[in-house]
Amino acid sequence: MSASGLAGASLRLLAASGSVIALLVGWEALARSDVVSDFLLPQFTVVASRIAEDTLSGTLPVQLGLTLWRALAGFALAGVIGVGIGVMMARNKAAAWFFDPIVSIGFPAPKIAFLPVFILWFGLFDLSKILMTAFAAIFPVIVATAAGTEGVDKYIVWSARNAGASGRNILYEIILPAALPQIITGLQVALPISLIVTIVSEMVMGGEGLGGTMMVAARFADSVGVFAGIVQIAIAGYVLIKAIELVRRRLLVWHQETQQIATF
Amino acid sequence: MTAFLWRYSPLFLIAAAWEIAPRSGMLDAALLPPFSEVMAAMARLIIDPGLYVHAAASLMREIAGLGLAVVVGVGLGIVMAWYAPVRILVNPLVRCIYPMPKSALIPVMIMWLGLGHLAKIGLIFMGCLLPVIVSSYNAARGVETVLIWSAQNAGASRREILTEIVLPASMPEILSGVRTALALSFVLLVSSEFLMAREGLGYMIAFLGEGGIYDAMFATVLLVSGIGFAADRAYLAFTRRALAWRA
After folding, report:
1. What's the angle, vertex CA B119, arms to CA B113 and CA B123, rounded to 5?
2. Which end of chain A, N or C, is surrounded by fewer C-beta atoms within 10 Å?
3. CA distance B70 to chain A (A)
């Protein structure tokens, strides 16, 4: 990075942290004024000290860990199976025939409607939450992988075959790397979906995890608890989404791109 | 017609497997009622006026929340792209809040707006607002400067450039952002109706599930998925129309 680029970046960072601080100060001021009651909007300092308390007592790390484990386990399942199905659809006529109508209907449908079905089949614990998350997150991965795999230049595949590469080699050395940008785009769409769905599952099924904790707080009119939950979840979401962007830049240093991705 | 049947033939296979598995005892019929029973329950639901009360409640929330988010979001996104002071103030906030999993807003909406229509409309509005702002902002920022320069050269005012150049040029990306918001709005609608409602299709699914009326529950789940799918297809047809001038 050049010196001027560095200066620009630090300026942007300053502006960004400035407006976040402004938001927090505005929150605190609004909460302290008589415009809204403490119940509707507790002061940020009170919420922050609740978060600190919960962190020190160890409850927050446990709840956050449970939520992240479910969301990421579901996300990982969706990633692995979704890439598998997507590659199969692009490379195999029978697989394309079988999965195409399922994916074209399933992709835009609100999968969360199946939540009571998952509860009925898999109970109220981790398994049903993880499978529900995977089911909701898998469709964008399949669609992106199939499109990416289909778009791989066939001449590259042919020349690799000509050079004596096996089908397995072609898959791992040519097709997957060439489709990787689109596969990661699919994963970037799937990640926020995983978080959203895991949290809703926790809210509906109750029990441990940030979603369940927030719902209990709302039922007991503990607004500090609800806002603490929102801040925690917002931070967790932010970190995860920045992390996957970082992974993308790392894996795709060889790839030129500027595209923005539309996600939830 | 035959092409259509061939394309969707896997669905008939799945329906057949769904019928056979519980009937043959491979799967517990209590956990998966045979497909024919689910279809019979669907037929009973469709002639029952109660379904339409729930569907109307859901539809009203959906349209109000999403409509509001689109109007406010597109406006804010374009203003952010067009006026530097707004961009400097608002953009970092949007970037910071955008990745928040939107379902975390459900408990706040319960506290702020209670258990009625308003809470769901507020949830859908808040949840869909950010994706719409971000896509409109990116779209308006991405308009080719050459277009704007030539309009300026031809003597267009700032206002004319905004309405005649920037808005049409960014329409495709704005519309695709709204499609994302449409999908999200259904997720938020159904989720909030699971959690806090006395009416609506999501409430109906949860209610039937808790009551153990599984054939009707499966029928409603299929119905809601079908509505989400149909809404997406209708929206795609609408965008093709709206963008027909580009061809």
Report:
1. 125
2. N
3. 14
Is residue A28 within 8 Å of A45, Cβ to Cβ?
Answer: yes
ipTM higher than threshold 0.95 = no
- Determine if residue B200 is left, alpha or beta; phi over 0 gives left, psi from -120 to 50 gives alpha, anything else beta: left
Q: What residue ranges in A122-228 does DSSP mark as E strands?
A: none
Q: Is the dihedral of CA A83, B31, B230, B12 positive or negative?
A: positive
| Per-residue pLDDT reduced to its tens digit, A61-111 | 999 999 999 999 999 999 999 999 999 999 899 999 999 999 999 999 999
For residue A91, the distance in angstroms to the closest alpha carbon of chain B comes to 17
Is residue B138 within 8 angstroms of chain A, CB to CB? Answer: yes
Q: Note whether A44 contacts B: Cβ–Cβ < 8 A.
A: no
Q: What amino acid is encoded at B106 in this protein? A: I
Q: Which residues contact B68 (CB under 8 A, 6 or more apart)?
A: B121, B125
Q: Which domains does chain B have, with CATH numbers?
A: 55-246 (1.10.3720.10)
* Residue A1 pLDDT class (50, 70, 90 cuts): very low
Q: How far apart are CA A40 and CA B112, in angstroms?
A: 6
Q: Which residues in chain A touch residue B214, judged by CB atoms under 8 angstroms apart?
A: 120
Nearest CA of chain A to the CA of B21: how many Å? Answer: 15
Domains and CATH numbers, chain A: 58-251 (1.10.3720.10)
d(CA A22, CA A59): 29
Task: Tell me the two tokens of residue B174.
Answer: 């704005």
Q: Which residues contact A42 (CB under 8 A, 6 or more apart)?
A: A31, A223, A224, A227
